[in-house]
Design goal:
By secondary structure, the chain is α/β, with parallel strands linked by helices. The chain contains five helices and seven strands.
Amino acid sequence: MIDDKKVDFSKTTFFRLVTKIADLPKDSKPQVVFAGKSNVGKSSVLNKLCRQNKLAKTSQAAGKTRNLVFFDVSEAFYLVDLPGYGFSKSSKAEQERFSKLTDDYLHSESPIALILHLLDIRHMPTRQDLEMVYWLEATKSPYTILLNKADKLSRPKQEQMQSKIRKFLQSETGIVFPMQKISAETGLGIDSLADLIRENVAGSK
């Protein structure tokens, strides 16, 4: 069991870039996975969570993350940044490689403690977002949706969009997903996100 009180996100370091499944860590440390569409802000959220501006590379250009990126948190567990999906400028062969790498990883024997699926709160989920929802649901891992970029909307609009997205996903899947608003810009929801991660890794084997 991991003592969640001793987890210090500021002590997160880059661990490994994984381009093929054979390169996955062989240890039993829990893994917390960040998934989402290209340019949804995964890297920015990771940086805010870990209180480091340059830990995960960010770019205005979509498609920056094209492999599995592992970060070690206090030598206790890993944060894993998945390749962003929906990057149209990638070649078909590259898109298929990203997809296969993600699929192989999510269905591997890796000790995934939690999957965090980022959506942009300003927009309704796309077909590709829905595909990822079904994909992640099939893994049977604990799963939460993060509605990022909440700072771009007023408080009433945030609540309105969260309700619309929740109802849409429920109507499409029949599932009521756990969901919370966050902002990598202002830090909204980041502390509660850290607590959620601590709870899940502490309870994993």
